[in-house]
Predict the 3D structure of the following.
Amino acid sequence: MTVGRAAPGGEVLPVPGPSVPPWSGPRQELLPDVRVTLIEPGVVATELPTHITHEATREAVQQGYDKAIVKPEEVAEIIAFALVRPRHLVINEILLRPADHLG
């Protein structure tokens, strides 16, 4: 298995990770008409844990969400930023984390 990211022209550039990101293919197939941006916000302070019906899972997930400081509005601002870029620009990925996040 080749590990890497697809580059323009189809070649794969090596990067650490388990495989080629699954969004690389669709991105190349859809350009230039459709831009694809991966936004990775991490844990966002939402009500998601309240929708989990399995009690042990809900409690475990809630522990992580209790520490969440990224607000949905902040993620929405990032999405809006990506959407209003000029058509000739593509933002491939945005990794959003709190400033004190170590990972």
